[in-house]
């Protein structure tokens, strides 16, 4: 095996050694232990060192669930982004209004639940605001749609931009709208994670607490697509 002439999986398959190990592993009930780890360490990373079947990883991921049976390992990015945007950046309050773009996506679904939990009035299309403006805009749309979203922000309102396309192309905003005490805030979660990881950790813990309290319910993963079929994933969306 160390000389590279034989694969470890072949050795473990002899005399049903691998099957015996999995039979023994199936007898262990470590679901509660894994759930506890996932709750206390939202930034948990897993490294599988094994024969390459992926069975251990599958069992661990299966155990990473909330008390309500929802998977915990797919919620972090979308709920952390939504919580950071609506709670930390925009300070969204009960009774305020919010426009959430791309509401059918992962972040959109998460943001809707966070906004509902807060008690905000939710819009998902600009036309629905009837030109009145909203207190908060959560935007990921680029180009002209970004500028249109900026004009939807009411006086003293906040726009949180989570798309990176206009950041990188150095887009510009109309400055006159700032005169009415509007705020524009950018949010790039990966950058926060890299420089101030404790901020993301606190937000993730808050999200897990919300899930355990039943005030938000993560959407289940309905389909999984391999990277080679990414076009099918976008078509499915």
From TrEMBL:
Family matches, as CDD domains: enoyl_red
Any Pfam family hit: ADH_zinc_N_2
InterPro entries: ER, NAD(P)-bd_dom_sf, Polyketide_Synthase, SAM-dependent_MTases_sf
Keywords: Multifunctional enzyme, Transferase
Domain Enoyl reductase (ER) intervals: 4-237
An example molecular function term from Gene Ontology annotations: transferase activity
Domain of life from the UniProt record: Eukaryota
Record's protein name: NAD(P)-binding protein
């Amino acid at each position: 095996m160390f000389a590279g002439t034989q694969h470890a999986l072949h050795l473990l398959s002899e005399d049903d050694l691998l099957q015996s190990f999995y039979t023994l592993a199936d007898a262990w009930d470590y679901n509660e232990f894994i759930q506890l780890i996932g709750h206390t360490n939202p930034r948990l990373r897993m490294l599988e060192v094994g024969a390459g079947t992926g069975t251990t990883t599958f069992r661990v991921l299966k155990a990473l669930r909330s008390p309500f049976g929802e998977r915990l390992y797919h919620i972090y990015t979308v709920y952390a982004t939504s919580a950071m945007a609506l709670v930390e950046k925009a300070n969204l309050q009960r009774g305020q209004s919010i426009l959430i773009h791309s509401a059918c996506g992962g972040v959109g679904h998460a943001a809707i639940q966070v906004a509902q939990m807060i008690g905000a009035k939710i819009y998902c299309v600009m036309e629905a605001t009837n030109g009145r403006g909203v207190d908060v805009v959560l935007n990921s749309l680029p180009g002209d749609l970004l500028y249109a979203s900026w004009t939807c922000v009411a006086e003293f309102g906040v726009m949180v931009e989570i798309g990176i396309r206009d950041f990188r192309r150095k887009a510009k905003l109309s400055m006159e709208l700032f005169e009415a005490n509007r705020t524009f805030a950018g949010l790039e979660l990966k950058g926060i994670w890299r420089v101030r990881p404790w901020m993301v950790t606190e937000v993730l813990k808050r999200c897990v607490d919300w899930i355990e309290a039943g005030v938000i319910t993560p959407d289940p993963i309905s389909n999984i697509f391999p990277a080679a079929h990414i076009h099918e994933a976008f078509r499915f969306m």
